[in-house]
Amino acid sequence: MRSRLLIVGVLAVLLLPTTFSSGEEPSFNDTFSLEWSYDFGDAYITTSPVFIDEKLFVRTSASWGGSAAPTVAAFTLDGDLEWSATNPHSTHHDMSPMFHVKAGSGDCGSWPDMLVLGWSDGSVEARSTNDGELIWSHKTEQVVWGITGEVAKDGDHIVVPTRTGLVSLCAADGSLMMEATTGLGWRNGVAVGQDDYFLGDESGTLWAVARNGSTRSVDLGEGKIRHVPLLTSAGLLVQLQKESSSTIHVLNPANLETHQVLQIGPSPGIPISTPGFILVFDSIAIRTLECTTTCSEVDRAPFLSNGEIGQVHDGQYMLPYNGIEQGWGLVNITEKGLLNLETITTGADGYATSGPGFFEHEDHRILLAFGSDDGVVYVHSSSADGTVQEVSESPYEFDWVAQGTVFLLYIALGGAGIQFLRGRGTSVLKFLSVYALLVGLLIIDQVALQWSQTIEELAPSSTEKPWDSSWDDSWEGTQIVSITIEGEMYSVGGLSGYSNAFELTLAACEQLGIEMEYEMTGMGTYVLSFNGEIGEGWEYTVDGRLAMLASDVSPIDSASIVQWTPVEAR
Amino acid sequence: MFQALGTHGPEVSPAMGLALDVLLLGAAFWLLAGPNRRTVHDIVLMGALVVSVSLVRVVMQPLPNIQPVTVACLLVGAQLGARRGAAFAVMVTMLSNFFMGDGWWTIFQAAGWATVAVFGSRISLVVDGVYNATRTCLAAIASAFMFGMIASLSILDGNMTGTDFLIYLANGWPFDALHALGNLTFAIWFGAWFSSLLREQPTIESIELAVVERHGIDA
Q1: What is the reported pLDDT for B147?
Q2: B86-128 pLDDT tens trace
Q3: Distance of CA A180 to CAs A143, A162, A229, A332, B195, Å?
Q4: Which of A409, A430, A545, A554 to mutate to test binding with chain B, by most B CBs within 10 Å of its CB?
Q5: A568: which residues sit within 8 A by CB, 6+ positions away?
């Protein structure tokens, strides 16, 4: 009897993995349903809808070839249009996020609850959130377009990133308090620091503008800075968007010196700070970074998004997939910074770039607003107690592999239990062996990865580093990459600050003008081709030793030499 | 001959590939050409086994390092002997790699499975027609690591040091462990059945001879 109880206990423990895998949270489509939608016609919605008190504000941008004028509109929570204002002089790219300023007062006067809007014709407007009435406006320079970046507030000043620099306006009447000239900007949101305002430009220059208007700048290299710089514990975090990849620079805000460079994918979106982590995303993946004294990548999940991201219910985040294959990403960040990504359908799917609007009513009803590139805003809501409101006709995607594996696990354990009760020890072993094999198949990727990383750490390092006579002597002691394509070696050295072979290779490709294709798998990122050359596959050495890990999990030091060769040519 | 070196060893030229195929096929026929005359039943059985086990290997290719061939080689070696077991291993490797990808590594895989077959023939998995399940399970686990070791030799080239090779081998241990787990599952589920399938059937001549000897009938 005792031995039977013991075995039943063991079986119960073995069941745990399947319990965990099947005990999932209710999905988005079970909790939310479409409440209402509004079609703005042939316009884009490229900035997130904003809930303020019990109103929803939506702004549109002119679409290419469309006739609808850029508009800001206010709706009740039930979808009734309260007011709208258009700017017929505005052009395309009205993507400066709406900025809500609560009623207040300061040295320059007092102001009501208002919405500050930057327009692509260079004008800045403050409008009453109550009825849309214009409170004040200010005109800045338009060079093809005007204001496209995110506005900020500093005390009683409204700080506006303009096309040619930055202006500081009195929140009460819009009078000009300070003006500074920087490089030409695009989506060049401004961050308010302790001593300076920080913003980037289209030449890859980061600007620090003091409150008296004096400027300092640092050239981060060829590329574009298209977001609000983030102030983190490690320093000022800035993304430099390049042609086929991007870099994250972490700078000392006091002297603007870069002390860390991280590699990310092409066309990065606007990063945000979350409690404990930074979320960055691009055409390849969404990543969590942990920034303490330096920033390091904690986790990543494949996803294509290039615009905004926003916080929604339960501390989660949502961002649109910038393509037709998937809808929106619902991101959950664990305490350790690991990402759980669910893709959902909202209506505003396909090539969207605006973030979500989020509102939690006093009765705990949650409203989410999604803007689409088709000019339609979709408002979803949960019921008051957060339970299912109605059965939605969502295209539920059944994961055959996951569900099938869980089913087989149950069969295997059930079979083992039945055979045990029938007293057939051999048959118990049969079913348990299937269970063990299934578990082995489920975990082999991660086990192999962890094991390889352990070996990599324990293995003696290569004593003699390879050196090619064609390399510049000044490269010695720096990070070097060589790529042999069709028998010809392309090399670049003098690199520094990269922490794994993949990041270093991406940076090298950027400098060498080589196009690299890669894919992300459960065991890491694998390089498929350089300049379209696939061959029998590619392999690489680190300091002359054949690497056994995917390049993005292969650590390198400050003087590592990474050499890529096609399988045919080693 | 050898065009280049890669993750599986040298990349072979078409001429070298043909030479390797001829070598492997020759080895298989030499192993099968034993002193005893094979019956049609033997030949059909061997052909059917080679085709079906190859098919199972190809079908199970998406599962990482789940190798039904290993246990099959072990039991063929145990029931039909080392020569036929090794010939079976070579032919299954050649046929399945024809679909999965042929190259320098085929020689080492064939050698690995042939070694497993010889191993199976030497460790008394079947004694007096009685199948020993426990011993088969243990042998199946050991065979996974044995095969992994031999197949990994294909990576060796002039540039690789002993340390590099040991690191390469160590990196493969999780996959060898999964291979062992797969072998164990196959052995538990199908070992006895597959072994009985391979059991030598008495020929008409041997039955007649036995009857004659028992009843003392003179010809």
Answers
A1: 96
A2: 999 999 999 999 888 778 888 999 999 999 999 999 998 988 8
A3: 16, 10, 18, 40, 86
A4: A545
A5: A535, A536, B3, B4, B6, B11
Q: Which of A448, A547, A442 is nearest to B176 (CA)?
A: A448
User: Least CA distance to B11: which residue of chain A?
Assistant: A568
Q: H helices then E strands: how many in chain A? A: 5, 43
DSSP H or E stretch at residue B80: helix B68-80
Distance from C-alpha of A351 to C-alpha of A64, rounded to nearest angstrom: 15
pLDDT at A352: 81
What length does chain B have?
Answer: 219
Quick one: angle between helices B173-198 and B133-152, nearest 10?
130
Indicate the helix (H) or strand (E) that contains B31: helix B14-32
Q: What is the DSSP letter of A549?
A: S
Please report the pLDDT score of residue B165 as a whole number: 86
Residue A567 φ/ψ region, left for φ over 0, alpha for ψ in the -120 to 50 degree band, beta for the rest:
alpha
What rounded mean pLDDT belongs to chain B?
83
Strand order in the sheet with A357-360: A33-39, A376-381, A366-371, A357-360
Residue with tokens 């298209």: A226
pLDDT of A528 reads 87
A239 Cβ neighbours under 8 A, 6+ residues apart: A225, A226, A227, A246, A247, A248, A249, A264, A268, A271, A280
pTM: 0.53
Q: Return the exposure string of A379-390: e unless at least 16 CB atoms fall within 10 Å of the residue's CB, then b.
A: bbbbbeebeebe
Domain ranges for chain A: 399-458, 473-569
Alpha helix locations (H) across A23-97?
Answer: 28-31
CATH topology of domain A473-569: Ferric Hydroxamate Uptake Protein; Chain A, domain 1 (2.170.130)
**What per-residue confidence (pLDDT) applies to A66?**
57
| Chain B residues with CB-CB distance to A569 below 8 A | 4
Comparing C-alpha atoms, which of A355, A180, A347, A143 is closest to residue A270?
A: A355
Locate the chain B residue with the closest alpha carbon to A412.
Answer: B185
Torsion-angle region of residue B152: left (phi > 0), alpha (psi -120 to 50) or beta? Answer: alpha
DSSP type of residue A536 = T
Indicate if the pLDDT at residue B9 is higher than 80: no
Tens digits of residue pLDDT in B41-59 = 778 888 999 999 999 999 9
Residues of B in contact with A440 (CB under 8 A): 177-178, 181
CB distance A287 to A295 below 8 Å? no
Consecutive H or E run containing A41: none
H helices present in A290-353, as ranges:
none
The pLDDT averaged over each successive group of 10 residues in chain A (570 residues) is 58 54 57 87 88 92 68 91 85 86 92 93 92 93 88 94 94 94 92 94 94 94 92 93 87 91 89 93 91 88 90 92 82 89 84 89 88 88 58 52 85 91 89 93 84 78 79 90 91 83 86 84 79 83 82 82 74
Give the one of B63, B160, B167 whose C-beta lies nearest to A459's C-beta.
Answer: B167
State chain B's maximal CA–CA distance in angstroms: 72
- Residues A248 and A291: their CA atoms lie apart, in Å, by 12
For residue B157, how many other CB atoms are within 10 A of its CB? 12
- A431, A434, A442, A455, best to mutate vs chain B, most B CBs in 10 Å: A455
